[in-house]
Amino acid sequence: MALDARDTGWDAGADVDTPILPRLAALETPGAGGRPRHFCGDLDLFIDREGVWHYQGSPIGRKEMVCLFASVLHRAEDGTYWMVTPAEVGRVEVEDVPFVAVEMFAQPCGCGPSQCVSFRTNCDDVVTVDDEHPLRIEHDPETGEPIPYVTVRDGLDARLTRSVYYDLVARGVEDTSTGERRFGVWSRERFFSLGTLDED
After folding, report:
1. Against a cut of 0.85, is the pTM above it?
2. 37: helix, coil or strand?
3. DSSP letters of 90-145?
4. Which of 3, 108, 169, 192 is the most buried (most CB within 10 A)?
5. Over the stretch 164-185, which tens digit does the pLDDT of each residue have?
6. Using alpha carbons only, what angle is made at residue 154 by residues 149 and 159, rounded to the nearest 5 degrees?
7. Boundaries of each DUF1285 domain copy (predicted)?
8. CATH 3.10.540.10 placement within the chain
9. Which superfamily does 99-196 belong to?
10. CATH 2.30.270.10 spans which residues of the chain?
11. Which of 154, 51, 151 has its CA nearest to residue 95?
12. CATH class, range 5-94
């Protein structure tokens, strides 16, 4: 799979949302023109923890190219990542998750259930936190620090930058509806917990 967008077989009008079955069973699914997609194996592409794409060890500087490749990125049920065009499919190495949330928006003013929290990713996708795009918090196994993520699409996640996470925490409120003291944010009538609060 070449890195020139003209050679990827990608077409803005093509169907690139073919479901990926466990362990890429969908490779047998016909691609463009009814022909099986060409399996390219492991591509020399790497997405680092900061969401930077690398080709043959060098960062890809063109944002348009990165966004184009990201638009055909899929995650298989076994956790591997694949670029799937109408003609080809190849595996991409991802250090953490493929996207980074670089900006947060919250409307309307206030922090109650009617609030909608949205994030912009490094590829300029805008995603609003809801049932299909949940927030989740993991913790660094060494430091215990929280690592926040939001689902962008089809199992592809974005990690919030530290500054964006601080903006999110600033809109946090306490909730006791489950019987425990939780700290989190509301978005589209759902409460997303960022953690529990210790009793005084």
Report:
1. no
2. coil
3. EEEEESS-SEEEEEEEEESSSSSTT-EEEEEETT--EEE-SSSS-EEEEE-TTT--
4. 192
5. 999 999 999 998 887 888 899 9
6. 15
7. 38-97, 98-194
8. 5-94
9. duf1285 protein (2.30.270.10)
10. 99-196
11. 51
12. alpha beta
